[in-house]
Amino acid sequence: MNYHASSVGATRYVGERTPRKEDGRLLTGRGQFTDDIQLPGMLHIAFVRSPVARGRIVSIDMGVAREMPGVQAIYTQADLAAIPVQMLSFFFTPIESPVTLLADGRVACVGDPVCMVIAESRAQAEDAAALIELEIDEETPLVTIADAKTGALVHPDKDDNIAAEMGDEDMLEEAIQPLLDKAPHVVTHTIRHQRIAQSPMECRACVASPEGSGEMTVWMGCQSPHLAARYVAHALGMPQESIRVIAKDVGGGFGLKNIPWREEVAVVVAARLFGRPLKWIEDRFEALTASSHAREQEVTLTIGLDDEGKLLAGWSDYACNNGAWPMGEDANIAVHMFMWPAYKLPAYGFVTRGWYTNTMGLGGYRGPWAMESLIRETTLDKAARKMGVDPVELRRKNLIYLPDQPVTSNMGIEVTDITPGECLEKLVANVDIAAFRREQAEARKEGRYLGMGIATYIEPTGSAGAMQPMTGETVQLRIEPTGKIVAMLSTHSQGHGTATTMAQVIADRLGVAYEDISIFEGDSAIGAFSPGAAGSRQGVIAGGATWKATEMLAEKVKAVAAHLSNASVDAVTIDGGMVHVEGAPEMSRSLKELAEIAYGEPARLPEGMASGLEAQFRYQPPPMTMTSAAHCCVVEVDAETGFVKILRWVSAEDCGTVINPGVVEGQIAGGLAQAIGQVLLEDMPYDARGNPLAATFKDYLMPTISDVPDFEYLHANTPSQTIGGMRGVGEGGAIIGPPTLVNAIADALAPFGELGGEAGEVTLPLTPSRILDVIEQRNVSGHQAPAEKAVAAPVAEEVPAETVAVSPETEPAPATASIDGDWDMTLKAPMGGQTFLAHFDTEGTSLSGYLSAPEGRQEFSGGTFEDGRMKFEVKVDKPMKVTLKYDLQATADSITGKCKMGMFGTAKVNAVRA
Amino acid sequence: MSEHKIDLTVNGHRHSATVEARTSLGEFLREGLGYTGTHLACEHGVCGACTVRVDGVAMRSCLMLAVQANGSEITTVEGLAKPDGTLHRVQQALKDNFGLQCGFCTPGVAITLATVLEDNPSATTEEMETAMSGHICRCTGYQGIRRAIRQLAGEAA
């Protein structure tokens, strides 16, 4: 089951740099992107967006705009509300913020869509949009995470500005601090990661064409037409069969296009209301300032180590800016889940929060949990510098190697076949570190500052079965009566080359020419549900599904040929599209001849065999497949200018079976270029009034060819436990790239001082002026720690904020009220809110009952109920074994409190009478 | 909005049309004439995706008006390969070296490199990389594009 398995035919395809099937059309201008769609009677949409970050909409004057040439309609939320919509997260759970397609009475960020103009051309729609006058009572916005902690509520109906929260604050004092107090070496490090605009080269785009009775064909820039169709059907309460989403070519996604968002859904709703095909093509200004953003986060990690450099304990405090309308409220629990499985760290605790602010909402971006590697690997290097030990040695003392496994991490993640240690050894064997240190020492004498950074990590890929949208993959494979081989897949390529890699697997396992295979994907009418490109999964799961389906089809071909030739199945081979029988060359037949018999003369087939030459397989892989890597980069920092030049970058990754090294290396390289952008260039800053400041590609600095060095690759190829042995590789470069580069820069700057100063606060991007802060040991950049950042200047004619209460401590009601009976309870769990029925029975101070959801019912007993305080424990097995410890406060008609969820930390609980 | 009649040649085909003065060349090529291979990615002249060849010069078609192209000879990405389908050597080099992923920026990249080589068939790696510095690619990290450039310059990719 791995790439060493010999190919079925004489020609090997798996593991080869086979030219991509996608390239022919894309190189000659024959791709089909959403903006290429033109339909009869199609009209064009432009959105009117809020120019202020926060306020009440007083009036919308559309009088002049309505009279403009070509204008057909102008919609506000009041119009779109005719079709009810429930916006959903990637996990198909309801968005908790009161998000609507267009602003509903209030605006909560600059770029909030307020009106939608429908006109005969895009230019006419934009002309009219520019003439709509919005009057908004502007209020002081909350821009930063620090603002969110103290400012007025972003969403007035919420209790506080905490969008999501996990972790156990008590654990610091109870379990972690005592270990840190005893540790001979304690290192604390903080990273402030800037806001990123994902910036796929094709901006968002949607064409919606209403057809028949309530049916709709939608062309959308997305990462999975199946997921987009399911999302739209779910959000609008339509049968999924009535929506067809087509996305033949998409110009990059990177997480931004994981789910349809407000504008895409608004286009679909408007097309239903207006009854004409509608097209919306986002422009770059909108893409930068009004598409969901990513990454803005702050984390502080403290680790304790013994004198040998072994890790003893760790604690981290993490916060991320969710903006006003996140694509799913997020405290980024994955940062904590995946911070340590590659390392031996006995004790770890955390608090993690997402905060609402008056900025554009949080969306996905390649490796959304990547901060775990950035903070861990930079803290380890800082520890190595402080302790005077080699950073490679420090990692060797703590990393997990194959002989250490199986082992379960401090957060309950069991790893059985990860290779971070082996990747590090492979890297170190191929990079002469001692020679570099000599070169570095010589260079310093000449006033040249070289640095080397190393980082290791693991990455969860190919997730399936634990979260609603993360499923297996179906492959339908057919040898047509013409002899042509076609595969219908649920995959989607926004550059991933899935048609190429899947055709390679088929060619390899069936014994046919790659050129004779056609892959059909990119259309929700083809294949079955899959989330497409999300979570580095397609090579692993679709690859495995294709592998198995092809073997099933090959077995059938052999059985048919053996029967026709009166030979044994073992004597049949397939090669180059021909079916041979050992010792009987005259019996050789082409697949076309066999297919003609299989479809047209079923009486000639073995007794009971289905006619045709088809196979279908849906692959459900192991729940998670881990990829490991170690990277090294070398930089030179110019001490005069603060510019960083990357001199060398070596990647040693283990993604198991490599179907196509060209595709795998392309994924790593793309992620690394984004990593370079994050560390050195890209930034979407906001001013104190909540204005996004990078409105063009002249302000938002994307890496160009001169910013990116040649990457060198080492592949470790430890087969995974999946069919085919692949491991995912889509996100890794963007996860391990940032710490590798930051560590190299910190190493180069070591003669001047710690990057980020003694306080150890590193703020990205590391612009030349921020690097000069270290070199010159003064505040060249003018950057101040955000904690001291000036609060937003009050806006003239301030409207009093609704309430200033953050975390209001409500008075417990008299405890006499009975809690017996049924309650609707909501638990703010990591993947969104979970709602279930809770039933309580009290007898004196003893408490029992059950929690009931469609998935099952859990009884509990042995709880206590005193003075309105309810404490009880519930054991659950799915998706992981965990004991839920509830600590709640009840009044007559409401219950609030917390639930400790083992590794998932603490979740907020609310309940009302059922 | 004033309208103007223009005549131009695109990929060897003659076209006549009436365009609004404000219509960009890129928009006109895509929507007016159906050459959708040209992609508009930033519409403010930074990313290079919409680059087409106008009278032998690589131009950003988002920054040029259609009326300015009156009388011009234009080559878009659809016009690079030979009529029999044989790829232009720039296209072939990009294909050989995994020089594209999503393919959205690729038409502009191909036109720019083809124009550099048109001007100087023995252009160096450095000259082509300098020309490439005016293009943004979000997918590839420029690795395959750089290898393609080396192949075009006759070096080991």
TrEMBL record, chain A:
Domain of life the protein comes from: Bacteria
Compositionally skewed regions (Basic and acidic residues) per UniProt: 14-23
InterPro entries named among the record's database cross-references: Ald_Oxase/Xan_DH_a/b, Ald_Oxase/Xan_DH_a/b_sf, Ald_Oxase/xanthine_DH-like, AldOxase/xan_DH_MoCoBD1, AldOxase/xan_DH_MoCoBD2, AldOxase/xan_DH_Mopterin-bd_sf
SMART domains: Ald_Xan_dh_C
Residues covered by the Aldehyde oxidase/xanthine dehydrogenase a/b hammerhead domain: 28-140
Span list, region Disordered: 1-23
Matching Pfam families: Ald_Xan_dh_C, MoCoBD_1, MoCoBD_2
Protein name, UniProt field: Xanthine dehydrogenase
TrEMBL record, chain B:
InterPro entries: 2Fe-2S-bd, 2Fe-2S-bd_dom_sf, 2Fe-2S_ferredoxin-like_sf, 2Fe-2S_ferredoxin-type, 2Fe2S_fd_BS, Beta-grasp_dom_sf, Diverse_Oxidoreductases
Cited CDD domains: fer2
Any Pfam family hit: Fer2_2
Swiss-Prot/TrEMBL keywords: 2Fe-2S, Iron, Iron-sulfur, Metal-binding, Oxidoreductase
Domain 2Fe-2S ferredoxin-type, residue spans: 4-80
PROSITE patterns listed in its UniProt record: 2FE2S_FER_1, 2FE2S_FER_2
Protein name: (2Fe-2S)-binding protein
